[in-house]
Amino acid sequence: MEYRTIIRITGILVTLFSTTMLPPAIIAAIYNDGGGTAFIEAFGLSCLIGGLLWYPNRRAKEELRTREGFLIVVMFWTVLGSIGAIPFILSEMPDLSFTDAMFESFSALTTTGATVITGLEHLPKAILFYRHLLQWLGGMGIIVLAVAVLPMLGVGGMQLYRCETPGPVKDNKMTPRIAETAKALWYIYLTLTVVCATAYYFAGMNLFDAVGHAFSTIAIGGFSSYDASMGHFDSPLINAICVVFLLISSINFALHFTAFNKQGVWLKAYWHDAEVRTFIAFQLALVAIVFVILLTQSSGESTEVVLDKALFQAVSMSTTAGFTTDNFAGWPLFLPMLLVFSSFIGGCAGSTGGGIKVVRIALLFLQGVRELKRLVHPRAMFSIRLNNKAVNDRIIDAVWGFFAAYAMVFVLIMTALMGTGLDSISSFTATAASLNNLGPGLGDVAAHYGTVNDPAKWILILGMLFGRLEIFTLLVLFTPTFWRN
Q1: Sign of the torsion formed by the C-alpha atoms of 118, 453, 138 and 259
Q2: 236 cis-preceded (ω within 30 degrees of 0)
Q3: In sequence order, what are the residues at sequence separation of 6 or more whose Cβ sits closer than 8 angstroms to the Cβ of residue 88?
Q4: Binding site, annotated residues
Q5: Angle at 153 between CA 79 and CA 111, to 5 degrees
Q6: Are 176 and 214 in contact (CB under 8 A)?
Q7: Is the pLDDT confidence value at 270 over 90?
Q8: Which GO terms describe its molecular function (predicted)?
């Protein structure tokens, strides 16, 4: 294991990440409402830590193998999540403990969107902007990780599109070099952010809120500058804009790249993709169920208001954004639990959405259908097809392996949370919210996580990392084989 090379790379990452402390400091100077000093101090401290990691190992430039790749990816999220907590620790407002600061930072960077802070509208603009910025950077990191890095390590959602599985438009090698791939992804990500912010602004948000909420929307993070989240604006137009961009951001960014390079036929690129069709069909079905039940159970609300609530909350929860316009935890019948369960599916592979991913759920369903056919015709040969191409059984094995690991981690985290004193509903939904990078849950975690005990928060931080790193990337570090020479 080339530890010195790994430490050198980590030092470079920390130094680069320290520059994220400067924009909030500028925001503090513009609005003059405090908070700037904490970011200047955090910038200096982060640069110092990065320099101390890099300088002694600056000449360590050994070629990295797959094992080092796994460790670098995990350290990328854990180290930067820890460094990201420094401004929260140093800031006087909000006055967060070390545990709360770490929770807020990891929740932002993994785009989970769970928060321990209340009274958001009274915080300095610098803190609010920093929370949005962390989610935006985390979302971009997720895209590069899923599309450009994890395929090289043989894990992650994009592994499903290797070899003959991808279909006509998906390819993990969008451009020949990883640097060019990352550049192309940044271009798409930034363009969507600018368009989303512009739409928010013309829909009635001020410039600060438009930019901040665009960051959280494209990253599918769910952080807001207000305790009432998107409900603060009370605008069906803003809600509709949010829904549109959540759906766009939930689609594979490699597919966006391919579609925008197909002049004149770009819509066909989406329509011909089985995962996108499944994703849209699921969204329509979920919205219809929520709308019908709310309409039959509502007390005097107009059809338009009910449709707005159903559409926004169904899409927000199922894409794992976690924005809210209403107290969905108080909705009738089984709707609150249905919305939490919808987050297990999440977005498409290679998107900023969390969850198990649509393509995995689709392949699990197709495998179940194949087993039923085999019971009826034991000697027949049945193949699983996606995008009119046969799926290699190795891919199906990988999907089943992921699902088994996901279930195991889910049970362990939920049991550990119950061991800290959380009730069963809070433990179950908090586990789902962390592993699926959703944010809000039910019970004690419906509004925020401020009342959750410290041991539970650390367990949930681990859950966020497991969910964001596609389970296997983090789980492999716990195997003895990984550490053997």
Answers
A1: negative
A2: no
A3: 94, 96, 100, 101, 104, 105, 127
A4: 111-112, 220-221, 320-321, 437-438
A5: 45
A6: no
A7: no
A8: metal ion binding; potassium:chloride symporter activity
- Distance, CA of 253 to CA of 122 (rounded, Å): 36
Cα–Cα dist 406/345, whole Å:
12
pLDDT reported for residue 151: 56
In which residue are the tokens 């959602």 written? 157
- The binding site for K(+) consists of 111-112, 220-221, 320-321, 437-438
Contact, 218 vs 196, CB < 8 A?
Answer: yes
CB 318 within 8 A of CB 294: no
Q: Which structure tokens are listed for 328?
A: 């969905």
The residue type found at 134 is: L
Tokens 């367990």: give the residue.
459
* Long-range contact pairs involving 414-418 (C-beta distance under 8 Å, separation at least 24): 416/459, 417/456, 417/459, 417/460
Is the per-residue pLDDT at 161 higher than 50?
Answer: no
DSSP state for residue 452 in the 8-state scheme: S
Residue 186 — left, alpha, or beta (φ > 0 → left; ψ -120 to 50 → alpha)? Answer: alpha
The burial of 446, by beta-carbon neighbours within 10 Å (0-12 exposed, 13-18 middle, 19 or more buried), is given as middle
Contact status, residue 98 vs residue 213, Cβ threshold 8 Å: no
Q: Model pTM? A: 0.91
The Cα–Cα gap between 104 and 135 comes to: 11
480 Cβ contact partners less than 8 Å away, ≥ 6 residues apart: none
User: If we measure between CA atoms, which residue out of 241, 251, 187, 184 comes closest to residue 217?
Assistant: 241
Strands 389-390 and 385-386: antiparallel
* H-only helix segments in 111-177: 125-144, 150-153
Alpha-carbon span 437 to 226, nearest angstrom: 20
Q: Is residue 145 scored above 80 in pLDDT?
A: no
Q: Across residues 438-447, what is the average pLDDT? A: 91
State the Cα–Cα distance between residues 195 and 337, nearest whole angstrom.
33
Give the Cα separation of 272 and 169 in Å (integer). Answer: 8
Q: Cα separation of 82 and 106, whole Å?
A: 7
Cα–Cα distance, 211 to 224 (Å, whole number): 11
386 phi and psi angles, rounded to 5 deg:
-135, 130
Whether residue 477 contacts residue 70, with contact meaning beta carbons closer than 8 Å, is answered with yes
Tell me the three state secondary structure of residue 385.
Answer: strand
